């Protein structure tokens, strides 16, 4: 292969004069992590609410919850991002729309909302599955000792359910990190976007993408490693055994 | 809110959207599903094989693919394939790999990692006794796989495979980053040409929704039928 390897490219300055290529990649990593954390917060809160709603005894919240999941699960993430970024400002009243369009963090906000809602439907499915996997006796016991529905959820069902669904939630969090890469299409300068820009400026195709690949692998490795420790402490004896 | 909507732009671009865009989206989905499933089954068999080297190689491949964002993999393969191709056929200069063939290869290789996890679960769901029975009546490894394990594994995993295909169908929209005219690419080109982002993106969302919703409805029915048989 007659390719000009140049691994020192990372310490060279970018043509934009914003520092070395290495530091732009690190900036990208920062944006990726920050976006993923914010989107995950949205996904976790909304997903928990919707997931709980789908297990309630009355029918209306169940139907609404199901509709919510179908809605966000059946539209590609990219289309959802475009709708939040390009379409929403058009549909708002003119003044608000202009204000939204001029927002400096526009791509970031749209990504957090877009990926947050997209992932919330997956979190909701997990939360529902977790609650439904508990023996029926748990809920009945709660009712029998005179707890209200809210109390039953707060003190009995949710603490158990979250501990059971911790492993799948970890992988949904990893998916959130990976999904942030799609946001480069609406101009979010995250890790993949930075690697792509570096490749364009320096023509060092291999080095740019190999660096991004390694950073993603290390990131997901670190998250997996950390979560496995927490997982062990959270595992409930008698549940999830042998898995 | 919908007062200054131009629904006609959708009607005018329908042939372009579906004949060019949706055709590519669907063929990419079909090729990547079939290719990914075949390759994925091979990887799953490697991973479950008694050879440690093979099994580690397969595990490494699957774990790596599953830790990377698809967008990055699309770029990676698109930019690297010319050099890798040059190296394989010992050409003078980097070979040209078009965006279309590059995405087909990328999606097949990428989805193979996900399908291999599904097939691995499928193969492991077959009781060991069946494999042993196969060996006992004199079949060799290939015959046991071909006639006993894989047909059952495939059938048990059918709903999961279809669900993954729906995910894959949605993921094909990411080829947008290479400016390919898939369904979303076509919609976005019309949207930018006519300045009609709102109509086109909402329409694209509606079409994707209807297809995926209908498909997952049938998958759910299939799942209900299969779970009764077992």
Quaternary assembly: heterodimer
Describe the global form of chain B.
flat
- State the low-pLDDT regions of chain A, or none: none
- CATH topology annotation of chain B: MetI-like fold
Structure commentary:
The complex is a heterodimer of chains A (243) and B (230). Chain A is mostly helical. Chain A has one domain (19-234): MetI-like fold, CATH 1.10.3720. Chain A is 74% helix and 0% strand. Chain A has 10 helices and no strands. In chain A, helix 1 crosses helix 5 (106-132), helix 3 crosses helix 4 and helix 8 packs antiparallel against helix 10 (205-234). The longest helix of chain A is centred in the N-terminal third of the chain and has 33 residues, at 21-53. Chain A is flat, with a radius of gyration of 22 Å. The mean pLDDT of chain A is 89. Chain B is mainly α. Chain B has one domain (8-229): MetI-like (MetI-like fold). In chain B, 81% of the residues lie in helices and 0% in strands. Chain B has 8 helices and no strands. Chain B is flat, with a radius of gyration of 21 Å. The mean pLDDT of chain B is 89.
Ordered list of secondary-structure elements with their pairings:
The complex is a heterodimer of chains A (243) and B (230).
Chain A: H1 21-53, H2 59-73, H3 77-91, H4 94-101, H5 106-132, H6 136-144, H7 149-164, H8 166-179, H9 191-202, H10 205-234
Helix pairs in contact in A: 1-5, 1-8, 1-9, 2-5, 3-4, 3-5, 5-7, 5-8, 6-7, 8-10, 9-10
Chain B: H1 8-47, H2 52-67, H3 70-88, H4 99-124, H5 128-136, H6 141-171, H7 183-194, H8 197-229
Helix pairs in contact in B: 1-2, 1-4, 1-7, 2-4, 3-4, 4-6, 5-6, 6-8, 7-8
């Amino acid at each position: 292969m007659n390719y000009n390897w140049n691994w020192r490219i990372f310490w060279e300055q970018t043509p934009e004069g914003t520092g070395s290529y290495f530091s732009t990649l690190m900036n990208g990593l920062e944006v990726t992590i920050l976006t993923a954390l914010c989107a995950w917060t949205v996904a976790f809160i909304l997903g928990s609410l919707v997931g709980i709603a789908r297990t309630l005894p009355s029918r209306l919240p169940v139907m609404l919850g199901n509709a919510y999941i179908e809605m966000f699960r059946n539209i590609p993430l990219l289309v959802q991002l475009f709708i939040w970024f390009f379409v929403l400002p058009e549909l708002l009243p003119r003044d608000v729309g202009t204000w939204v369009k001029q927002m400096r963090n526009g791509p970031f906000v749209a990504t957090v909302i877009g990926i947050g809602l997209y992932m919330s439907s997956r979190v909701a499915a997990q939360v529902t599955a977790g609650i439904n996997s508990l023996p029926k006796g748990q809920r009945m016991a709660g009712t029998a000792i005179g707890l209200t529905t809210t109390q039953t959820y707060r003190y009995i069902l949710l603490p158990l359910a979250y501990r059971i669904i911790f492993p799948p939630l970890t992988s949904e969090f990893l998916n959130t990190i990976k999904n942030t890469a799609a946001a480069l299409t609406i101009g979010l300068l995250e890790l993949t976007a930075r690697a792509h820009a570096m490749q364009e400026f320096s023509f060092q195709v291999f080095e740019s993408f190999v660096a991004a690949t390694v950073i993603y692998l290390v990131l997901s490795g670190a998250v997996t490693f950390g979560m496995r420790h927490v997982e062990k402490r959270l595992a409930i004896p008698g549940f999830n055994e042998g898995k | 809110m919908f007062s200054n909507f131009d629904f006609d732009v959708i009607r005018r671009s329908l042939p372009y959207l579906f004949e060019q865009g949706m055709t590519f989206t669907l063929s990419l989905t079909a090729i990547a599903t079939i290719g990914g499933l075949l390759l994925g089954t091979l990887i799953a068999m490697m991973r479950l094989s008694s050879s440690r080297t093979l099994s580690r190689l397969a595990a490494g491949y699957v774990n790596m693919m599953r830790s990377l964002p698809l967008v990055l993999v699309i770029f990676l393969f698109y930019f690297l394939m010319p050099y890798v191709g040059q190296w394989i056929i010992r050409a003078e200069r980097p070979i040209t790999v078009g965006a279309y063939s590059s995405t087909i290869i990328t999606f097949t290789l990428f989805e193979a990692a996900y399908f291999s996890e599904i097939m691995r679960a499928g193969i492991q769901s077959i009781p060991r006794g069946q494999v042993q029975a196969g060996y006992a009546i004199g079949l060799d490894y290939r015959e046991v796989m071909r006639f006993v394990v894989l047909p059952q594994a495939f059938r048990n995993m059918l709903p999961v495979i279809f669900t993954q295909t729906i995910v894959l169908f949605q993921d094909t929209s990411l080829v947008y980053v290479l400016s390919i005219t898939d369904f979303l690419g076509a919609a976005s080109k019309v949207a930018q040409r006519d300045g009609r982002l709102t109509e086109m993106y909402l329409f694209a969302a509606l079409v994707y929704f209807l297809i995926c919703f209908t498909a997952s409805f049938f998958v759910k029915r299939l799942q209900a039928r299969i779970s009764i048989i077992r």
